[in-house]
Every structure is written in C-alpha cells, then in structure tokens.
Amino acid sequence: MNTFKFLKGFILALAPLISLAQVNNTYTLQGKAGKPATVTLQYTQNGKTVQNKAEVQNGEIMLTGTIDTPLQASLLVTPSEKEAMATIVHLWLEPGQIKLNSLDSLQKGNGVFSGTPLNDESNALALEKDKVTGLSDQAHDEAVKAIVVKFIKAHPASLLSLTELNITLSRGIPDLAIVEPLFSGLSAGLKNSPLGVEYQKKLIRWRTVDVGAIAPNFTQPDQQGKLINLADYKGKYVLVDFWASWCHPCRDENPNLVKQYQLYKDKNFTILSISLDESKTAWLKAIKEDKLPWKQVSDLKKNNQARVKYGVQSIPDNFLISPEGEIIGKSLRGEDLNKKLMEVLGK
C-alpha cells in the first residue's frame, strides 16, 4: 500500500473535522454604532492577555476570533471625539454570534449582549436581581442571594452558576452550609474546571476558619514593629478584625467597633485589628483619625499572610474567638456584631 497516498487521504478526511472544530470555537461580536469609535475586546487565555481591536465601519462593529473555552471579557469603547470619555463593560465571550443592541447604548449604561447561552442567562439573572428594590442594604443582599441560589440549583451545568457562587455567594467568608451543597450539586465538568478546582481549594481553607474550628495562629508586627502573636491572647475573647485605611465600609464600621470595645473591654474582651494596607503612613493616619485604642498589626504586604491564612476575600471581615481559641462567630457587622457580643459578654 502507498503510505503517502494513505496519509494524504487520511488528512483530507480529517480536514472537515478540523475546520468544524475551529468554527465551533469561533465567536463573533456584532453591533450597531452611531458614532466613530475604536473597540477593544480584552480577555485572558492560557495565561496570556489577548486584545482584539476594530474600528466602527459603516455604522457597525464586528469582532471575530477563537477561544478555547467560554470566559469573561471586557470591551473598551474609545470614541473618536476628543472630549468623549471611554467606556468599559463586561460580557461573556463564548462560541457563537454575540449581539450588542448598540454601541451608543453601552455609553449610556444600558447596553445588552445577547445571542449566546451565557449572555442570555446573565441578562435573565440581572433582570431578576433588578426586581429587588425598596429594602435595607442587608435585606437587599439576602434577597439577591436567594435569587442566585435558585438560579444555581436550576442551572447546575452553567459556568454562570459557578461564577455567581464564587462571587455573589462567597464574599468575605461564606456560609459553608449554603455554598458547599451548591458546589456539590454542580456538574462534574464545572467542578473539575480550573475555576472549580480553585473554588475547592477555597472551601478547604474556609473549613479551617468556620465556626467551631480552632482559630489558626498568626504573627504580625504592630505599629512599632513588635511581633504580636494571636496565641498570646488565649484566655480572652478576641475579635480578629480585617480592615484597611482605604476601605470605606471598614472606616464606617470603626465607630461601632470603638463603641463595642468600650462596652466590653473590662469583660475579658479585646480587638486585634489586621490592616491590609501596604502604606504604613496611610495605616497609622487612619488609626489616629478613627481613634482606635486596641492593638493594630500589619505586615504591610500585598498578600497579608494572616488574610491568606483566614481566606479573607473582602473587607471588612472578622472572627470572634473564645478564650479557648475556638471561632464562635464570623463576618459580624453592625447590629449582628452587637447582638453576638451581647449574647456572649452581656451577662
């Protein structure tokens, strides 16, 4: 048998399949545009930043490319007019034809991407979230979380479900009784995806700082550079508080922390604050401005080691620790913190 002819025939037979695979990984983004502009689609693929640029032509934009897997991307719209401001929005980039209602609508804040499963699901979920109005901040957050939980249960194979689980339901230190069953209910493909594997690592860290666990020890320098060890506080109730000078919600919460500290400091209670600042000057200035009388520590590193150990993703966040070193409360703010301290110390 002629080997060359066999290989040639084999390759020709594969050609349509290879072509089909490329087509199936191809995305097209189309939309109308009333004014001249440059659009830049940016995303990360295989660890590399990819940029796909195009100019508005004949009142339309069109961007085409290939991706290995659906992912989130940003679209930067830069108007040709010198005084006009650029606009950046986010979308799901996936194989298929993605439609933008109009480029001008993006600059007005009401642009919509549609035509592919993830973008359509995202639109539907956003509409449900927008229906939640007229509630306090806490009640609003709880109502939105309930909508997300319902969505995840109904869409176990959707990448949007894993993304919402990772972001909306996992700010700070999440309630493991909620997020673990939701993650377990996702499809095997999602759980074994890079994002799914990373989320599993977070779950392992969060279990070590869940209510009932022994608080992990850490050592951080105080304002004078003296090393402070959490273990030194054994025998006291300690509120381990994560904050930063640049965090407005943290600064808003500080007056309540000062009030609670004054109420219970003579009842075997103290606060140990860990700043995520990188600037010592800004850190010390905030301590002075907010008149924080308890011990303050920070390693002034971008990835503060105590934050990493406790799995803190957003601030303010905190952990209430018993004299025995057990975590008895977490992510307590405002009235929730006040009630917990009254329950434990107001006897």
TrEMBL record:
It comes from the Bacteria. GO terms for cellular component: cell envelope. GO terms for biological process: cytochrome complex assembly. Residues 1-21 form the signal peptide. Residues 209-347 form the Thioredoxin domain. It is found in: Cell envelope. Keywords: Cytochrome c-type biogenesis, Disulfide bond, Redox-active center, Signal. It comes from Mucilaginibacter phyllosphaerae. GO terms for molecular function: antioxidant activity; oxidoreductase activity. InterPro entries: AhpC/TSA (IPR000866), DUF4369 (IPR025380), Thioredoxin-like_sf (IPR036249), Thioredoxin_domain (IPR013766), Thioredoxin_ResA/DsbE_sf (IPR050553). This is AhpC/TSA family protein.
